[in-house]
Specification:
Blueprint lengths: L6 H7 L5 H8 L6 E3 L5 E3 L2 H5 L7 E7 L9 H14 L4 E5 L4 H5 L7 E2 L2 E4 L1 H5 L5 H21 L15 E3 L9 E3 L10 E3 L1 E3 L4 H8 L3 H9 L2 E4 L5 E3 H4 L2 H7 L7 E5 L4 E4 L14 H10 L2 E5 L4 H16 L5 E6 L1 H6 L4 H11 L5 E6 L6 H13 L3 E5 L1 H4 L5 H11 L15 H13 L3 E4 L1 H12 L30 E10 L4 E6 L17 E3 L5 E3 L4
Parallel strand pairs: 3-15, 3-16, 4-14, 4-15, 7-10, 16-17, 17-18, 19-20
Antiparallel strand pairs: 1-2, 2-13, 5-6, 6-13, 8-9, 11-12, 13-14, 20-21, 22-23
Helix pairs in contact: 4-18, 7-8, 7-11, 9-11, 13-15
């Protein structure tokens, strides 16, 4: 029996091209890049202006049915689809998020695809990469330090400590830091208060980086971040703290998209990493806009299922970018469909995309144990739901295994997209929440805690009511409860709290028990990482 190579073995067998050659293939010149060694580069924002008069390519978003904790191959599909399109003679590029170290060392492991549909160099991308995430953490934590210092040094801004919204961040899953007390010790060690840590991907700074258009917009958004209220109930911003400029300085390199390559030399832009179940879960607007001017097809990925990342892609990212998607790919697997008791969940996620007027192609991420009978049932049900459905073998065969998918995407994206938003911005906060809950999740109604009711009144009074909604909920169910599978209906969606990301430009309600700092599982993937005598990554305990 032929040995099945691991992802890392496949990646190491690849011959990488110099990043300047990859850039040239995309149409970029040497002056558009800042190289980080031979295989990584940042694209200067001047490229966005230089190529801005060109016609946009086709805009493809990859989403999924409700996944299992292991994921269903959405990143594999995003990467592999761009490779398949190139094999068919089209110029294509993929745009994905940067991995967070929390999941890398937690349950999922890396986020660079897998098998023969990967982005390289794997070790660099999955770990420290080009320090963009560290820059986000530094900017966020500088803000938190300035705020505490402002209170300690006489509280000239009259900050009400009970209203502080900014929390420190760390790019590690660490449940012990969710709720802590700072300022303990001597008087000069600060003022004691209750606070906690979030994971860096959940930081508003990360969301801002992903939604900013350029340096000017980045600075403006950073300055609008509301970090607390004063004792008269007025917002206190980073601009008031006089830290917004320094925060933006720390992000000056991070705002530039990162150019890498797939196993087949297809260009891939990796930029920003906001969580899909807490933040809006999509890579940057800047990366997408540059790519659309350079390629015939841009394949971008949204986090988790269509009820999470895709809904936020349509209602938040597209609203701020002004871009309109031409086609959506919904990834599914036989494994996940069995967990959900059949095809109902997939059918609902197809419906969720079609609500926005976007053509849908279903990609069945094929595993070796899948039967033809199972695949036939999925194709039939997807067709009834209004989507073309094809088998994808991108993991096993690379771009060649996705040619049928690429042809289906080309056909679907040639149709007229009747893209529309789910709700108008002038709709009241509650009505926007209830529209998402009933139309996208299938809830019958929404309940609000006393805290949430208070926040709705506060944000309405402060003039934040016209912002889009970024629902924070589990990605493992259409409901707020990860144990409820399939396509539930008639349930009540509980809103326990609502928080404001004014710089990013959205309000985010918390649905049920949602954690902004994940914990590690009983057997973290990090247990398997080590290095060999040459300092190269090795994976231990492989079955």
């Amino acid at each position: 029996m032929k040995k099945c190579l691991s992802d890392i073995e496949i990646a190491r067998a690849a011959r990488l091209k110099d990043i300047t050659d990859v850039a040239r293939k995309l149409g970029l010149k040497k002056g558009d890049l800042e190289s980080y060694g031979n295989y990584k580069a940042k694209i200067l924002l001047s490229a966005k202006k230089r190529y801005g008069t060109r016609k946009n390519g086709k805009y493809i978003v990859v989403t999924a049915m409700t996944p299992t904790p292991l994921g269903e191959g959405k990143t594999v599909t995003t990467i592999g689809l761009s490779m398949a399109l190139n094999k068919l003679g089209k110029k294509a590029v993929s745009c994905i998020r940067q991995p967070s170290l929390g999941p890398v060392f937690g349950i999922k492991g890396g986020a660079t695809g897998g098998g023969h549909s990967q982005v390289l160099p794997v070790e660099d991308i999955n770990f420290h990469f080009i320090n963009d995430t560290h820059a986000v953490g530094a900017a966020n934590n500088l803000c938190a330090a300035f705020l505490d210092n402002s209170i300690f040094k006489g509280n000239k801004l009259n900050i009400d400590p009970r209203t502080i919204a900014i929390r420190r961040v760390l790019d590690v899953n660490d449940r012990s830091l969710r709720n802590i007390v700072t300022g303990l010790g001597k008087k000069e060690d600060g003022i004691p208060r209750n606070t906690g840590f979030d994971i860096t991907a959940a930081s508003e700074v990360m969301a801002i980086l992903a939604l900013a258009e350029d340096f000017r917009d980045l600075r403006k958004r950073i300055g609008k971040m509301v970090v607390a209220l004063d004792k008269k109930g007025r917002p206190v911003t980073t601009q008031d703290l006089k830290v917004a400029g320094a925060m933006t300085v720390l992000l000056a390199e991070a705002v530039k998209p990162n150019l890498l390559q797939t196993l087949e030399g297809t260009p891939c832009l990796i930029h920003t990493g906001p969580f899909g179940n807490i933040a809006h879960g999509n890579s940057s607007i800047i990366a997408d806009k540059i790519a659309l001017k350079l390629a015939d097809y841009v394949v971008t990925e949204s986090g988790f299922g269509a009820d999470c990342g895709a809904e936020k892609f349509f209602n938040i990212k597209c609203r701020y970018s002004g871009l309109k998607p031409d086609c959506a790919v919904v990834v599914c697997s036989v494994r996940a469909l069995k967990v959900h008791g059949g095809t109902a969940n997939l059918e609902k996620q197809i419906e969720n995309v079609k609500i926005f007027g976007v053509p849908v192609v279903v990609a069945i991420n094929k595993f070796a144990q899948d039967t033809q009978e199972e695949i036939k049932v999925i194709k039939n049900r997807a067709g009834v739901a209004g989507a073309e459905c094809v088998v994808s073998e991108l993991w096993a065969k690379g771009g060649k295994g996705g040619e049928a998918l690429a042809k289906a995407v080309m056909k679907a994206s040639s149709k007229k997209s009747n893209f529309k938003y789910l709700y108008p911005l002038d709709m009241p906060i509650k009505k926007k929440i209830e529209t998402i809950a009933t139309k996208i999740y299938g809830a019958k109604k929404v309940s609000y805690s006393a805290v949430a009711e208070k926040k709705i009144k506060l944000y309405t009074r402060l003039g934040f009511g016209r912002l889009p909604i970024c629902m924070a909920k589990t990605h493992l169910s259409l409901t707020h409860d990860p144990k409820i599978k399939g396509r539930p209906s008639g349930f009540t969606l509980p809103i326990t709290d609502i928080r404001a990301s004014i710089g990013a430009g959205f309000l985010y309600p918390l649905c049920g028990e949602i954690k902004t700092m994940p914990g590690l599982p009983s057997k973290p993937v990090g247990e398997r990482y080590d290095i060999d005598r040459n300092g190269r990554l090795v994976m231990l305990g492989r079955d």
